[in-house]
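REQUEST FORM: STRUCTURE PREDICTION
Request ID: SP-0412
Submitted by: Lab K.M.
Chain count: 1
Length (residues): 99
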Amino acid sequence: MNWRFGYALRPVACRERCATRIERSFIEDVLREGSQNIQRCRRHLPPSCACWSSQRAILWEAGRNGEKTPEGWASIKLFEILEDLELASRPEAGTAEAR
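STATUS: Completed
RESULT:
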């Protein structure tokens, strides 16, 4: 139901006591921009490549109040997703055309 109104669900522990909500557009924007930056990076140097440093800074700022806040919980999850994406192996340029 919260997705329908443009908000993401909060962690179960925060639902009763946390008044703030995370806008769905924020989550989508950070995830989309971060994954696109990682995909477009020509000189990708994991871990912590500079290609998604702006998203890392945004997530660091969003989570500065701790992981028990809705913003902190969401920023940790987004950071983990982008970090996994950064470390995932990427196909070589020529392999997609060979198939």
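NOTES: The two ends are 42 Å apart (CA to CA).
Reviewed by: T.R.
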